[in-house]
Fold this sequence. Notes:
single chain; Phenylalanyl-tRNA Synthetase, Chain B, domain 1; elongated; alpha+beta; 3-stranded antiparallel beta sheet; 2 domains
Amino acid sequence: xxxxxxxxxxxxxxxxxxxxxxxxxxxxxxxxxxxxxxxxxxxxxxxxxxxxxxxxxxxxxxxxxxxxxxxxxxxxxxxxxxxxxxxxxxxxxxxxxxxxxxxxxxxxxxxxxxxxxxxxxxxxxxxxxxxxxxxxxxxxxxxxxxxxxxxxxxxxxxxxxxxxxxxxxxxxxxxxxxxxxxxxxxxxxxxxxxxxxxxxxxxxxxxxxxxxxxx
Length: 215
């Protein structure tokens, strides 16, 4: 059975890492056979910014120079970009220096650095959906955000792009209550002496009781 760690933490008041929970759960409840990590290993700062100016690159026909505002307190960023779908006024994702995204050519991690591209300074990167691990969106061109998106948003948090841990749990007993997320949450709460934030069964019992009263 596969249980997402983040989803499990919606039911139990647990603040430590997935690895620590897996160890405790294996010792006191059921064995966590494996922790599967899903998602791209990307790192901040990945924020939203607004394109306020676009100019042709003087030394490269296929490149453009975008001026991007990320917030009122920061200087406008100059970013060299080869995408054809960018326009003035668009809200776009911006990877600033030290951010890590996915290199589309080989799938490996790519750290963003300040540098020069064909003689022009570039202070970051505008990126497409696959470069941040979103494979089900159009991979051609820059990922354009909704026009009402606020500037300087942490897009890793906003778009839920963090790497997600998924537990592979085997109950190895005739326990029907342990074959669902709510059952695993109740087992963890009891065995690890942590509070339940949601008690599905208590809510279910109340609904049954109310149905009986109504009938």
